[in-house]
Amino acid sequence: MTTVPVARLAEVFVEVADTLVDEFDLVEFLQTLTVRTAELTAATATGLLFADHEGRLQFMAASDERAKMLDLFQVQADEGPCRDCYRNGVPVVSTDLRAAQERWPRFAPRALRAGVRSVHAFPMRLRQEVIGSLGMFGADPGTLEPVDVQLVQALADVATIGLLQERAIHRGEVLTEQLQSALNSRIVIEQAKGVIAQTYGTTVDTAFEMIRTYCRRNHLRLSQVTREIVTDPSAIPDLTPPPGHPG
Amino acid sequence: MTAPEDRPARIHALIAAELRGADGSGDRLRQLCRFAVRELPASGAGVSLITDAGTQGMAAASDPTSEVVEELQFTLGEGPCIDAHASRRPVLIPDLAEDALTRWPAYVPAAREQGVQAVFAFPLQIGAARLGTLDVYRDEVGALSGEALDQALTCAEVALMILLDEQDRAGPERMGAVAESALGHRVELYQAQGMVQVQLGVSAAEAMVRLRAHAYANGHRLGDVARDVVTRRLSFERDTP
Predict the structure, then answer these.
(1) Which of A54, A171, A199 sits opposite B150 (nearest CB)?
(2) Mutate which of B10, B124, B190 to test chain A, going by most A C-beta atoms within 10 A?
(3) Which residues lie across from A49 on neighbouring strands?
(4) If we measure between CA atoms, which residue out of B97, B96, B94, B108 comes closest to residue B144?
(5) Would you tell me which of A43, B57, B68, B122 could form a disulfide with B156, CB atoms 3.0–4.6 Å apart?
């Protein structure tokens, strides 16, 4: 993997800072962050997992929401680099999956089947606490340069800032509040995918693309649109299935 | 389950033991409230139902005083539980003092008159589906510790499960359902919930009830039923008796 040009890096941080200002939508912010992280590092997919109140890692956002990638993030509630990273509070970098079959007997074969060869995971840190993990999957058994490790860790820290952005954090309980709200927003998105998939006879993957396209085209926020879709399916906006969708 | 994850399993087991012998959902919710009072640093607890259709009211409370407090917010039309429901996030008020008085000018003096000094309200929700709140009361000022908060959230999950089971009027009482946890599920469950919602023309909450009932009636795991729905091997139809 190549080291990122400084100018591009600056652009990304400016974009992120812009998103943090007003009309803030946490899920959308986190998703943008995973997409930019994937672009900067040429990763196949990056994703964010948050720990819920029972210390289980829950899927929060990913640069690639196709079912097979979601599966790779979700399985890490039980096993995988993100889980190890979350547990130990330190990054897991440059692991060649072919050499990690014993370490992750469930995760490694699934990931290899999905075309993933290398994995990295970075802790989302808040003071002494680890609240989640940013995972990266690559198609090559590539290693991360030390400078790239710092970069991705910085992006993971930005994700934490995003979580805390809505209100200033004074106490641990505010974090719990934010996490609860964030994870619930994520569930709404999955519910909306189901509503749209059923209504239009598409796959859930296609449904998500339809919802996102609609949001972009109309400058609407993902959380708001998905909530409306689930709360009142009869008022579903006129979404357009992409041409040749696998309906 | 590995050792560090024993805590939630232990809480679920404790609650399941507590609910054993409870008769009906009201009874189970009351037992759950009592459990919350015993396990948390709390003096009272209550569960209220608030649906998007407009139904509002107390469902259960740990004791008569908590019943009164729980009802207060509906009488007065304001309070932490109504705000928790509206904002879809916990409302944590460790001190019902001046700040809270500005926010709820009628509720705060009335709650304090009943000896309540701190209130913590947790929404009972799965994504866009909302059923009500679990409210935890303290008779002294002070925040809940991180661990107590986690426990309270687990109690809220169990309250949600009890309410979902109750909506499934056709289904028998089942204690096993108490041990499962709402957020431990994978995204397929919520995707299936959205699909079933459209298939049956029902609310998101009702769709979850039907999914759970189907899994139970056929002895399948909920996750497997969800996967079958998402991959279109299983479809729910309207107006089946």
Answers:
(1) A54
(2) B190
(3) A59, A133
(4) B94
(5) B122
Q: Using CA atoms, how far apart are residues A228 and B190, in angstroms rounded to an integer?
A: 15
- Name all contacts of A168-173 with Cβ < 8 Å and 24+ positions apart: A171/B143, A172/B146, A172/B149, A173/B90, A173/B92, A173/B143, A173/B144, A173/B146, A173/B149
Secondary structure of residue B219 in the 3-state scheme: coil
**Interatomic CA distance for residues B75 and A157, integer angstroms:** 45
> What is the distance between the alpha carbons of residues B84 and B136, in angstroms, rounded to a whole number?
12
CB within 8 Å: A198 and B198: yes
CA distance B119 to B92: 6
Contact criterion met (CB below 8 Å) for B76 and B56: no
Per-residue pLDDT of chain A (247 residues; tens, 9 = 90+): 456 777 888 888 878 777 766 667 888 889 989 999 999 888 999 999 999 888 889 999 999 988 888 888 888 888 999 999 999 999 998 788 999 999 999 999 999 999 999 999 999 998 888 999 999 999 988 788 888 888 899 999 988 888 876 555 555 566 777 888 888 889 999 999 999 999 999 999 999 999 999 998 888 889 989 999 999 888 777 787 766 655 4
What are the residues whose beta carbons fall under 8 Å from the beta carbon of B205, sequence distance 6 or more? B51, B126, B129, B130, B131, B164, B167
Residue to test with chain B: of A84, A126, A164, A180, most B Cβ within 10 A: A180
Euclidean distance between CA atoms B140 and A223, whole angstroms: 37
Specify the pairing of strand B129-138 against strand B44-50.
Answer: antiparallel
Place of tokens 């009272």: B44
Cβ burial, residue A69 (10 Å; 0-12/13-18/19+): buried
- DSSP-derived letter for residue A220 is -
Identify which of A70, A174, A195 has the shortest CB distance to residue B198: A195
Does ipTM top 0.90? no
Q: Is B57 helix (H, G, I), strand (E, B) or coil?
A: strand
B236 within 8 A of B214, measured Cβ to Cβ: yes
* Closest-approach residue (CA) in chain A for B1: A78
For chain A, what is the radius of gyration of the CA atoms? 18
Please say whether the beta carbons of B144 and B120 come within 8 A. yes
Whether B170 contacts B213, CB under 8 Å? yes
All structural domains of chain B, each given as residue ranges with its CATH number in brackets, are 4-174 (3.30.450.40), 186-230 (1.10.10)
